[in-house]
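Structure, all two chains, one model.
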Amino acid sequence: MWATNLKILSIVLGTLGLYTLIANGIPQVESEVPQELSFTGDVSAAELVSAGEDLYAGAGGCTACHGLGTRAPNLLSDAAGQGAIGARCGQRVEGESCKEYLHRSMIEPNAYVVEGFQPIMPDIRRALSEVQIWAVIAYLQSLGGEVTVTGDDIAAAQSASDVETADSGAAAATVATTDPLELLREMQCLACHMLGDEGAQVGPPFTGVGSRLDADQLRESILDPNAAASPGYEQFTGMMPTNFGQRLTAQQLEVIVAFLESQQ
Amino acid sequence: MSRRLTAASLGAVALGLLMAQSGLAQEAGVATREYGDFPYIGSRVAVWIAAQVHLMFAAFVLGVPMFAMVAEAIGIFGGDERYDRLAKEFTRLLLIAYSATAIWGAVLLFFLTTLYPRFWAHLSEIFEVSMWIYVGLFFLESFTLYLYYYGWDRWKEGTAKYAHWGLAILLNVWGTAVMFIADSWLSYMMSPPEVIAADPSPGVVQLWSAINNATWMPINIHRFIANIVFGGSVVGAYAAYRFLAAKSDEERAHYDWMGYVGNFIAIGALIILPFAGYYLGREIYEYNQQMGITMMGGFMSWLWIIQAFLIGVLFLAGNYYLWVGMTRIPGAERFLPYTKWMLVVLVLGFIVWATPHTMIANRAELEAMGGSHHPFLGVLGVMSAKNTAVNLMILTTFLSFLMYRRANKQPVVKWAKTGTIIQATLFALSAAIVLFYGIYGYFVTAIVRIGFSVYQVIAVLATIIGVMVLDVLMLRGAESRGAIRWGNMPARSQYALFVLVVTFTWLMGLMGFARSGIRQHWHVWEVMRDTSQWAATPALGPAAQIISACVLIFLVLIAFIFWLGGLVEKPQLVPERPATGVTKG
């Protein structure tokens, strides 16, 4: 029986060893925790690019989509003869510099959805700080282009971050206006919803929304946007931010609801 | 009266003070200490091992009562006493394993409270009511199990036997409810209700919305089926060991049969498990695209290649066991020549399924490949090819079962030939549908291609159901070509059962890592960050070492438990009913 026991033990250990060996033999990718960056005003481009590359390939999680070119444009390789992202970012939107375009693409990803791709990218501020975002931009610019991110951008981001930290207790109302149109613009609603000629066609249009939804439904769709998907827009469920209840005052919410209700 | 009141009041005050003090101490602890530190291996690995080994035992003690219940029912309603004895033997294994499950559960709880006090405070504040219910159900489950096992011989006749079977049903009800509650805690960590994302304080979370989160039910279903698979494979390995250690032909025959039943349960449930996995994956994507992409295309993309390898091993080992088993069935010789072709299909399918495709790559790797995909494997490893491969592997495995099932039977119904032709046509048709959509998938866009997998799955499932129904009807009153020679099985077949149990257990550890790892550096996704030194999710290599350690701990303990079980009581062996020349379909 000892021989049998030994055979069983060998099979068990051999099988375990084989699986462990294979798992150790493949490329090892760890999911890192995004490290907070702290730069001084005289930060060099090389430092920014290096930090950005680490974030892009690691904790930022960018390569999950952008590294393949199937879910999102491949930023590292040539696209339709235009070169890598650093070479083409300046020509994407008229009037916007490369770094402005890249920054807006990250914090309002649905503002520019490249043709042929779905609007699946989240607002990257959910994962990275402003300083980290600027470091990633510097890295992307370095891929075929000139790095124009400077210490000023970093300093501005850091001071904005400090202000935000100081105001974190009162972060609820992020704007003071009660003008509905201004609120819709400030809250980035028009990045996804069309109102007349303004906005983008990602979510249901605001034009005519008053004839489709009553005040209660409008209120619910702002505060709890995933409660009921609009017909035809089910695939975008989960995209709309769920924190408008914290970002708007009650008065602002009611102003928006009344305005949308009037859009017959 | 007054003295008693005073004493009671003093007692209450003392208790109150004690509780207040303990509460204060707890609050003070939570406020000042976010994480504990476990020596040598660190807090993360300590909790990981405790959770994983607890889960392995839990899967076993939840899976086994399900087929104990079914086996006892077959014994009662089919009149075959072997199944009743089998059910009792299953339950005997369960009894000690149940204590081990509870011990590891306690280890996990203490590790969580001492190593992750802030996280545990968050979880217990939301789920406290369900935790109390959990404890209550745990009591009910334990005592139902004791009644079930110890009442076996006392309540074995007449109406009492039905009541005894009722205990088996009750045991499964309690067990499933316990699992559902525990699943709500872990699925909340993955997919907390989105309404709380802006305000992470647990006080705002409604208990039911936390329980009924996006991944709760998919995980419940997936675990329910996986527990059956896992329980079956552990029972199979137990039977294999007993077979190899058997001292008499009678004993060998019993454990050969038991091993077959365990393997049948494991592989049978495994075939439907991918569909539950698909449902879970879809719900993860629906909940959060980013999480879904991290799981399938992010840092975990290589994990699915390992998974494909493991499932390939399961298919090969499962089929090998069946093919070797056919050598002890009179009449099976006519099917044996086909097995080499089936092996070709399985191996080819295995290779295609394990081909890497959508892998995370850095700039240097992209440059080396000349693009985002490998120039040759990029074509072979796409989902069209992989779905085709896995569906053909499922069909082939089902064909193995069918041949095994029909090996010693000669149908006597008049339409037997027509029935067999219809069965063959169904097989050919579904294989053709799978191949057609697999090839056509290369010529359409991704969004259309994804839909094709549904047609492939429907074709395979419809064939399995259709062929099985026809087979049951066709073999009613079938003549026997001779009884199965239970016990007359080469030893190498039993080693395949050990490979199966190790692979199933390892796969369970791997998928546990995947499910938990996609939260990355969040205790509760986008609600509570892991700010400890152990927050980074390790790569597959280090993860594999921990998984292997967990599997080894589990197997050593379960082997010890089974050995203990053998000391307590030897199973009563019941011979198979003598063959009458006619078998039931």
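The CA atoms of residues 94 and 134 of chain A lie 21 Å apart.
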